[in-house]
Amino acid sequence: MNYLFPQRLQKIGPSQIRENMRLALESGAINLAQGRPDFPTATLVKEAAIQAIAQDQNQYSVTWGLQELREAIASHLLFRHGLTYDPETEITITCGVTEAIVAAMLAVVETGDEVIILEPAHENYVPAVYFAGGIPRFVTLRPPDFNFPYKELQNTITSRTRAIILNTPHNPSGHVFTKEELNKILSLAEQHGIWVVTDEIYDHLFYAPHHHIAPASLAPGWKGMIMTGGLSKIYAATGWRLGYVIAAPNISSAIRMVHDYLTICAPTPFQHAGVAALRLPGAYYTELRSTFLHRRDLIMTMLMESGFEPYAPQGAYYLLAGFEAWDHEGDSQSFTKRLIEDAKVAVVPGSAFYYQATDLGKHLVRFAFAKRSEVLMIAGERLSNAFRNR
Ligand SMILES: Cc1ncc(COP(=O)(O)O)c(C=O)c1O
After folding, report:
1. pLDDT tens for residues 96-134?
2. Which of the chain's termini has less CB crowding within 10 Å, N or C?
3. 7-41+283-388: which CATH number, 3.90.1150.10, 1.10.3720.10, 3.40.50.10150, 3.90.79.10?
């Protein structure tokens, strides 16, 4: 049988991030491709997962997630941003932000609706829009500072625009949206009746003087906001698949229905551990930020010493870098292959993140630095040797 993919899948390719991770594994390269921490999850949190399994918390949870976890998320957001949500009707636990975004798209996008994505964009957004029958439209953030281009957003909005996906702190550029940028996006969205779907998975990861502002805190009570976040990155538990989506009760019921038929519920024992994670003291986040600040400074220095032009991230744990001094003849894809061969370091080509301004993507690569300093230092040595012998 000659199987043809349905149309909506023909527009999507396999994930370049996961592909580069597989290549890294096969070739023994250091994996700076995927945002996959190589340091341990907090002991207290791991113990809570072990205990939940031992105590037989191993069956489906209620579809929208354990009540204790929804309450813990509500308290966390109240404490951090002064936001008030009803865990009964507004908070849904999902299998990661990945599922949260897909569920949000399926809940709000009608076939043929347009969804605005800020590029360079995390790889999952475009497929999520296509799954829902939507059409992605792009607004380009450009180096060196990836500031938000207000006019471009204004010009991209049409009568068919249904939603905008807003990721802050931003992967892959590391841009942290300012209050002014967020206010502009929100006022355009309110004016045109567009859903704002946020992805705040890196909410605790920013480098002074930048700091994360939850878009919802600038528009209290506005019903067009769909906020997503997750536990993968901040608690170094990417394999647990825990995320959440928060929206007004009517839209939350649509999201809950989608989530129910997609996955039924997030893994129950890890939801119990998620409660323990959210109870970690404030010092946990301060230390997380200072460790990542050190890693960021280390990778910046090491890249500058090996012929790259890195753009300093304001938040999250990625950076984009140009590689002009390497005198590479091809684009970022072939450069990525060359780095695996010559330096045994895996990264992701910038072309994986740019859909409209494709020329920008050809000249950039993304480094993920959620790695222990000693691993980053070995990667640095390999890169500078390969640069010297180029
Ligand atoms: C911006 C962004 N959103 C979502 C995800 C995936 O999150 P989760 O593990 O919660 O599905 C990632 C992972 O790299 C990401 O960078």
Report:
1. 999 999 999 999 999 999 999 999 999 999 999 999 999
2. N
3. 3.90.1150.10
